[in-house]
């Protein structure tokens, strides 16, 4: 019998030094998605996440269909619709019908979000109006955001093709300010954009975030309807309407957070990635791949950032009495709840932008997240 899978994502946030008494930031890959107007992965995450248990339980029919095809990991990783080799490429790089998933070459399966349906969660807008765009900054990096809109006559019941989009973006901005984050659901980049005139009915806004310090590129589909709305969202949860802030903050925070939270929140994902100025090093992602009574199986992805690495070390602490009983593709040592894993002889070298993985079996209650997950090249 196949084990029931529950996926979660934790981005690397802290690097233990010495005996663990001192912590300092470590690098993290960029991740993010459109929040206003909300992308399919963001709004389906809002629709499906149980605030009490963290489980993904979609209520919207389109979100449920996407999860049925791509699995719950697609929503626990709503911010990772990316291609590490994108380099800002659009038409001709991603095949028609695969625009919303970023093709099939990313780290996760988002193909369910390509489904041609008329019942995705939708943001209500007014043509020609200036709105406050919000784009989640799960990890911060410099780059350019480009927003495209579908042509008049767009049919959401047909697979999205490049020919459905206007050939040039209606809005483009580079290195916008940010409020909050990184590594939180609420943190985001923000800027103002004027929506195209002459639009009515259902449309789709296609976002492309191209990093300037890497070839990593993020793609996203935001379903909208031009009906005189002011950013209201319908189709999430039980069909209610939510209204986002109408005006973004006028100035970014002047003082960044001085420390990383020591206790992660209860919902997935939790820990906050940070980045060093050079953008080099590695980051780690943790997810549960199988659970059973009294035990679980997990996988950790080790990503090299903007430069290749020759070795890596990943550490974390379990939130409870969990223990590692078996580990592969690495060498593990433990001290209480602290687990340290170093690369095996064959997988220490990782090319820039690429990743390797290791897995393990554990005992105890399956932890949807782990604390203080960190990756270093020591």
From TrEMBL:
Residues 230-279 are annotated as: Disordered. One of its GO terms (molecular function) is hydrolase activity, hydrolyzing O-glycosyl compounds. Residues 1-30 form the signal peptide. This is Chitin-binding protein. One of its GO terms (biological process) is carbohydrate metabolic process. It comes from Paractinoplanes ferrugineus. Residues 230-240 have a biased composition (Gly residues). The keyword Signal applies. Keywords: Signal. Residues 245-267 have a biased composition (Pro residues). Residues 268-277 have a biased composition (Low complexity). The gene is cpbD_2.
